[in-house]
Amino acid sequence: MEEISISAKTREEKGTRANKRLREQILTPAVVYGKMKPHLILLNKENLHKLVKAHFGENIIFKMNIEEDGKKSKSYPVLIKEVQVNPVTDQVQHIDFLHIDLKEKITVKVPIELKGEPEGVVKENGTLDQHIRELDVECLPTDIPEKIEFKVEQMQIGDAIHVKDVHLSGDAAVVNDPEDIICMVSAHVEEVIEVPEEAAEAEGAAEAEGAAEAEAEEAKPKEGAPEEAKPEKGAAKEEGKGQGSEEEKRG
What we know:
Blueprint: E1 3-10, H1 16-24, E2 27-34, E3 39-44, H2 45-55, E4 61-68, E5 71-85, E6 92-99, E7 106-115, H3 119-122, E8 127-130, E9 134-139, E10 148-151, E11 160-162, E12 173-174, E13 181-186, H4 197-219, H5 233-250
Parallel strand pairs: 1-4, 2-6, 7-10
Antiparallel strand pairs: 1-3, 2-3, 4-5, 5-6, 7-9, 8-13, 9-12, 11-13
């Protein structure tokens, strides 16, 4: 595994105000802990920024050389544990280093990389879903794998890769649940929008009401249409009177 040296100085000041003042002096406050009691240190901001930008997220062992009272102490093997970055300036605000023992196992997160495109995606319009993107690996610091790769070209719809399918060299071991699914190829499913029952009933009632209103509107006499002729009252009486006279004549 790659090993890079870092030079640091012991710092006495601590706290928000002190750290702000140190940053103005192109220095970055940091701390080392783990196999040693917490040790407050200072690093050159520019060198540290380049270092973190190039290697943060990778499990690289750094050789930390701490200068105290103008004298360099022995080197400490460390890993980057946490980095605080200013979201506006993208400058490192603070960094935590973990002091480790190269002869003792540690647990680190190792990224997973999927290689290729599954046949189930290319030929059957399936979808490759990755559920886990990094695994917890227990091993010696010098045996930390850079990444865990899987070739997925042969995967068909329904195929899955589980944690138990991971095989590491040496004494390294994955500590995640063996049955957890890392990735799988699923059939493409068309999105179906379900309408709640209450909404469907309300929509049906609205349609029925609209139909009733349309029917009533059609039943109304249209403007300009001729009305049915109604017999006049006088004409009816005269007609009745005439019929009576004829009967009298006949009688």
